[in-house]
């Protein structure tokens, strides 16, 4: 049994912390007393701790007694928090999905003899793990990931609910999307190349460009074609584009009756209520990961993994929190059980490349009824 501290008591951080109490002593830390109390109400095995991660020295001091750290803070805090954890010489799994390039911390992690497994959620996360595994088996030419979290009940106009902060969702809609085509990195606006895609048991969804490839642009440069697209119910993109083109996502402040207001802050505030996922609201996560390449005999193989997961009534846990959080919990246990010992910063594709690690993730998730179904052509 190890002592673990989880930084961030949002929906996903709390889910990771509760799952890890099955085997470990877990402390959940957050700035919000309310979030900590709500987590404690769900699982009294948790120890809670009020903590401001922006106070770097205090954070490093706080981490000292713990065997392992999980970082589940909001994206805008992620890079600096992860850096402080590494400087504190603590091994860590990170799911803060910050915009900066995590590989910039690789040398620091090596110098501090630290293992940092980053981007370890559903996507980025499990899609990278699948890619890493098949990159060892096939000479890959193509990788595609389609992924989205959606409410079961559609509410006009957006037909969308966010299991995390609206500002992080808006970031996904405004950050330029990078994908790889014929070996070249192509940059397009997010929300472009909208296509309708059919999914079993759901029906038609729309996919659009988003900046989801992250680390694999750098770690898998030999794969000629790679893209990740976000999934929503049809019609969602059109409404988002209207807001975007009308300036509602601008960060530059405007003066309204003597008050300086950022349109983005205003929009986030409005959408927070519109998009807020109810504590027990039924929602689903859908993902399709496809890899294509030549096997040892020169024959082309195409392998697809499909995921459809829904809100869990039994544990009152959202699907997105399950699919994201249990992947991070799996990485934590996998490391603590000694299956991955390399030092440095590791995106999930560099962990999933090992067969034992790949199947550890799949089995860990399957035990929690998060099932990836494989088909092969």
Description of the molecule:
The protein has 377 residues and is of the alpha/beta class. The radius of gyration is 20 Å and the shape is globular. α2 links the parallel β2 (25-30) and β3. α1 crosses α11 (319-336), α3 crosses α4 (75-87) and α11 (319-336) packs across α13 (355-367). It starts with a strand and ends with a strand. The protein has two domains: 3-122 and 319-376, NAD(P)-binding Rossmann-like Domain (Rossmann fold, 3-Layer(aba) Sandwich), CATH 3.40.50; 126-310, 2-Layer Sandwich (Dihydrodipicolinate Reductase, domain 2). The protein has 13 helices and 18 strands.
Task: Output the keywords.
377 residues, globular, 34% helix, 2 domains, alpha/beta, single chain, Rossmann fold, 7-stranded parallel β-sheet, Dihydrodipicolinate Reductase, domain 2
What is the helical fraction, as a range of percent? 25-40%
| Second rung of CATH, namely the architecture of the largest domain | 2-Layer Sandwich
Rg over C-alpha atoms, rounded to the nearest angstrom: 20 Å
Number of helices: 13
Number of domains: 2
Shape: globular
Oligomer: single chain
**How large is the share of residues in beta strands?**
25-35%
Output the CATH topology of the largest domain. Answer: Dihydrodipicolinate Reductase, domain 2
Question: What structural category characterises the helix and strand content?
Answer: alpha/beta
Write down how many β-strands occur, each being a DSSP E stretch of 2 or more residues: 18
C-alpha termini separation? 43 Å
CATH superfamily of the largest domain: Dihydrodipicolinate Reductase, domain 2
Mean pLDDT: 95
Largest sheet: 7 strands, parallel
Strand line-up of the largest beta sheet:
3-2-1-4-5-6-17
> Ranges with pLDDT <50 over ≥5 residues?
none
CATH top level of the largest domain is Alpha Beta
